[in-house]
Amino acid sequence: MTPWSLMLVAGAGTFLLRLSFLALVRGDVPLLVQRILRLVPAAVLAALVVPAVVPDTGAGAADWASWIRPVAAVLATVTAVRTRSIFATLAAGMAALWLLSLLT
Amino acid sequence: MTRSHALREGLRDAAPILPGILPFGIIAGAAAVSAGLAPMPAAGFSAIVFAGASQLAAVELLAQQATWPVILLTILVINLRFVMYSAVLAPWLSHLPLRIKAVLAYLITDQAFAVTVARQRRRPDAAGLPWYYFGAAISLWLTWQTGTVVGVLVGSLVPASWHLDFSVPLAFLALLVPLVSDRASLVTAGVAGAVALVGRGLPWNLGLIVAAVVGIAVGLLVENRTRAVEATESRRSAA
After folding, report:
1. How far, in Å, CA of B54 to CA of B86, rounded?
2. Which of B173, B105, B138, B179 shows the shortest CA–CA distance to B13?
3. How does pLDDT run across B194-216, given as a tens digit for each residue?
4. DSSP type of residue A26
5. Rounded CA gap, B109 and B77, in Å?
6. pLDDT the model gives residue B205
7. CA–CA separation, A64 and A60 (whole Å)
């Protein structure tokens, strides 16, 4: 598979997910399906974020530098909770990462 | 008259969101190039799939040499939420011909959906909802495409010492936080995050899918319990 064919299949699949209920004349989503779909984004995003910011140190002791990203991520989370702004969250997280990297 | 008015209203309501979408798009473009995609496929990804979180996840998996079926499955699972948006929008757009619906469907995003639902709740009788939605959605589309093209062009110029790769999980965090609105979604996110951490070593990068499924299952159980407690309490207060 080339990147283009992967993208075309992924694009077609995503389009069909978007079109699904719009193409039906009338349709109600079963309640259980609605409840599952509501939780999908939170589950997937959390599963993406946590392994990306927690250092993969195994059983060995982590050094200071490997804690920079988790700490910056916590500061970014606090910013996100307070501001609800993508831009402010990115700015706070990157600023924290740069400052902590300078300090260590 | 109604058309252009509703269109402008949609553009106006989406405008405050655009400054956040632009850097997110730049990150998606830059991450695609640094994962090894050539500039054309990297930009094409945004035009064809047009779903930021799934694009970033796919690019992360590409960089980890994941297999194609796993990448495809991950993209589709992340984009499952569009089915819900489609169902909510459907009654408001039901009078339109299918080819128009296809265009509007392609433009569905979290943000276009959110502003459209907010307008419908605020003013259920306001005219021109499809035009309002189109105005919001098309400005988000243009911003996203511009952002990814800029990211593809400048991404390879940014030195590694800037740690720009960290902006990817930060963008996910910024999307995640507003979704955690009650106990069930909080538990879902917590469990999914913990399982993903434990499942880092799973074969074929299946940790993400397994974590999402376990997180959703536990979240549903918590929701069931909350409902049962609420039902008991309302019975008690009625008696």
Report:
1. 17
2. B138
3. 999 999 888 877 888 899 999 99
4. S
5. 15
6. 77
7. 13
Measured between CB atoms, does A56 come within 8 Å of chain B?
Answer: yes
| Distance from C-alpha of A6 to C-alpha of A3, rounded to nearest angstrom | 5
Asked if the model's pLDDT at residue B108 lies above 60, the reply is yes
Residues 6+ apart with CB under 8 A from B205: B61, B64, B66, B67, B70, B74
Q: Which tens digit of pLDDT belongs to each residue from B94-103? A: 899 999 999 9
* pTM, full prediction: 0.84
pLDDT at A58: 61
End-to-end CA distance of chain B, in Å? 56
A58 in reach of chain B (CB within 8 A):
no
Do B209 and B192 touch, CB atoms closer than 8 A? no
Helices (H) and strands (E) in chain A, counts: 4, 0
In what helix (H) or strand (E) does residue A5 lie, and over which residues does it extend? helix A3-23
The DSSP code sequence of chain B is -HHHHHHHHHHHHHGGGHHHHHHHHHHHHHHHHHTT--HHHHHHHHHHT--HHHHHHHHHHHHTT--HHHHHHHHHHHTTHHHHHHHHHHHHHTTS-HHHHHHHHHT--HHHHHHHHHHHHH-TT-S-HHHHHHHHHHHHHHHHHHHHHHHHHHHTTS-GGG-GGGHHHHHHHHHHGGG--SHHHHHHHHHHHHHHHHGGG-GGGTHHHHHHHHHHHHHHHHHHHHHHHHHHHHHHHH-
Inter-residue contact B65 to B91 (CB < 8 Å): no
CB of A81 within 8 Å of any CB in chain B?
A: yes
How many CB atoms lie under 10 A from the CB of residue B84? Answer: 21
| A14-33 residues touching B, CB cutoff 8 A | 14-15, 17-29
Q: Do B166 and A94 touch (CB under 8 A)?
A: yes
